[in-house]
Amino acid sequence: MDDNIDELLPRGVALSWGLGKQPKRGPKRELSIDQIVEVAVTIADKEGLTAVSMNKVATSLGFTPMSLYRYIPSKDDLLILMQDAVCDIPNPIIKGDTDWRGNLRKFFQAFVGIYLDHPWFDEIPISGVPISPNNLKVTDWALGGIQQLPLNDHERISFILLISNYARGCGMIKRDMAQAIQSGTSLGALSGQDYSSALKQLVSPERFPNLQPIIASGVYTEENNQNNNVGDDFDFGLERILDGIGHYLHLKEKDKV
Fold it and tell me: Which residues fall under the DNA-binding region feature (predicted)?
């Protein structure tokens, strides 16, 4: 391995891999990067990402901010480490399981869970492909779940990206809905049922020719769930994505004939 490999990576990413020189002499009692990151994640989970600062993390640990900078050079580096830390989740895919649809469902659910457990996760901007260890680990076991499929490397990683992007969107919506409920929003307001009567009067077929029949039927505001044979909207969307992957695999097999 290159002796200067840490210089080839962003500082925060290098730290996530355990690379780079650590201070030989620390504060009065020893600190570690893991301790700092754990406290920062706890603050973000309870108070939001904006509450995280080097000063607040240091105070929570009983040290000065300068003590933290000896381990993590900047807040941006801390955010990278936080994002990677919460991706350290158990692998739900059983090794050797050939049920690729079930494996991708498990990957999707696990990824959505990160957004629900850590609502701040998506507030850290995407600055490139994941290159920190826990991020890559999640991608690795997701790829393992479709390893048996007749796909090339580009196809495999593209399908994992497709599922992870869908999980990101669903996770953000589910998180926002959970937060709305916690803040006192009623289920009727969240689904739109509280406003169904008003919408039926306001949404005319002249102005909204395609939407009006759906609102009139009550589907838009979930009035008629008893007639819903689709199930959960998020799961329905996932199954259609999996159908698309299945169709793609079928076409590949036909091309071989």
Answer: 53-72
* d(C-alpha 75, C-alpha 52), whole Å: 9
Q: What is the CA radius of gyration of the chain?
A: 23
List the structure tokens of 198. 């008003």
20: left (phi over 0), alpha (psi -120 to 50) or beta: left
The two three-digit tokens of residue 120, written as one number: 């701040």
Q: Can you give the pLDDT of all 257 residues of the chain as single tens digits? A: 666 788 889 999 999 999 976 655 554 547 899 999 999 999 999 999 999 999 999 999 999 999 899 999 999 999 999 999 999 999 999 988 899 999 999 999 999 999 999 999 999 988 888 899 999 999 999 999 999 999 999 999 999 999 999 999 999 999 999 889 988 999 888 888 999 999 999 999 999 999 999 999 998 888 766 555 545 889 999 999 999 999 999 998 887 76
| Two tokens, residue 220 | 């838009």
By the 8 A CB rule, do 105 and 81 touch? no
Comparing C-alpha atoms, which of 116, 117, 147, 121 is closest to residue 135?
121
Q: pTM to 2 decimals?
A: 0.88
* CA 221/CA 228 separation, integer angstroms: 12
The CA distance from 181 to 179, in Å, is: 5
Structural domains for the chain: 5-85 (1.10.10.60), 100-185+224-256 (1.10.357.10)
Identity of the residue numbered 90: P
